[in-house]
Amino acid sequence: MSSPYTGAPAPSPATQQNHSLAFRVMRLSRPSLRPDPAALLRFDPRDVFLPEDALTSPDPSAAAELLHGLLHPPDSAVSTTAVPGDFTFRDRFLLRDPADALALPGLLVLPQAFGAIYLGETFCSYISINNSSGLEAREVIIKAEIQTERQRILLLDTSKSPVESIRSGGRYDFIVEHDVKELGAHTLVCTALYNDGDAERKYLPQFFKFTVSNPLSVRTKVRTIKDTTYLEACIENHTKSNLYMDQVDFEPAEQWSATILEADEHPSVVKSTIRDLCKQPILIRAGGGIYNYLYQLRPSSDESSQIKAEGSSVLGKFQITWRTNLGEPGRLQTQNINSTPTPSKDVDLRAVKVPPVIFLERPFMVNLCVTNQTGKTVGPFEVFLASNISGEQKAVLVNGLQKLVLPLVEAFESINFDLSMVATQLGVQKISGITMYAVQERKYYEPLPDIEIFVDAE
């Protein structure tokens, strides 16, 4: 389907006199269903068969009997039951069928202009070059290209095989397509180089301008909890038609693996292979409708810590495909999504293992790990339990030597060690204040985050 011809601004009189040819352009696009409020006032057979004053007469039942006699003759097999209903004009607003609520006349409407053109769509145009003069145009070289602020894309060039002739009153038609990948002003430039009736070589340029808008926006939020990163994406529809999302895939960077998190389905929903293959598209309604996606990202290799230390914050990008109400496709790829850069630590101290059962006043071991995230050797270190600023007695203390000495740690290497501790109070307690000190650099590192434990009696 296509929209009616749409041309460039009217040429000057001089141009009209000098050129035999002229371009006309129409965009090939699908029709649309346009609601018609008047469709609610449905046509009724009584308007044809009954007299003008039949419905306003004092006895509307007479009109009902007359109409029934016309529609169902006496010899008809149809029951002679009277036609029910109110035979006045006031019931014309009643919905006789659920489809009437759509107010659709059942006709498709062609666009009357170029219409809205969105990023990610395919711009398809039907171009006709007409000869409206009394002379024949020969050896016609036709070119069509799209010009944007950044580039020029050639769509058609007949330089190697010119159109031999366009007779008087004739035309030459062709179709061009272009995948729209840029926002902003676009110009379809159509040019013709031809010989007119006087064998004079003439050049005809015509310009058709249109603007490309963004069909949707993708807003993201990134949150990091320990070694897990969560990416939330909100997709908003900026078009005037519903979008049916066929695909919304997040392609993570090499150092990440991504898993989409979805709400649990109702137990009545039966999972099957056919249902997975025939998955329904997600509807995002026109004029600001939104849909949210949530992804869980984890490091995909053991070298991820080294990559993070080098300052890489790229998480990945989205591949999005959709269709409109009548199936017109669209496709977008977002730019790289970056995480909020976090300051990297030269030396990282973390807890690896804590016993599941801890008894009061009985020693237990906490397994810790020190990781050197630099390219040089660091250490030695001292590990100890810092006292509370408030001076309160801790519920969990170091058992034995108050300072544990650790050896040198090579570049990008880790060492594990055990710290003996003892709990002095029952219930839920915290191991807090485990601190590391670099002896040579005379530098204190941030204490280990508090670890909650449960202390039970024997």
UniProtKB/TrEMBL annotation:
Domain Trafficking protein particle complex subunit 13 C-terminal: 356-446
Domain of life: Eukaryota
Pfam families referenced in this protein's UniProt entry, alphabetically: TRAPPC13_C, TRAPPC13_M, TRAPPC13_N
Family matches, as InterPro entries: TRAPPC13 (IPR010378), TRAPPC13_C (IPR055428), TRAPPC13_M (IPR055429), TRAPPC13_N (IPR055427)
Domain Trafficking protein particle complex subunit 13 N-terminal: 19-212
Domain Trafficking protein particle complex subunit 13 middle: 216-337
Signal peptide: none
One GO cellular component term: TRAPPIII protein complex
PANTHER family: TRAFFICKING PROTEIN PARTICLE COMPLEX SUBUNIT 13 (PTHR13134:SF3)
Similarity field: Belongs to the TRAPPC13 family.
Protein name (record): Trafficking protein particle complex subunit 13
Taxonomic placement: Eukaryota, Viridiplantae, Streptophyta, Embryophyta, Tracheophyta
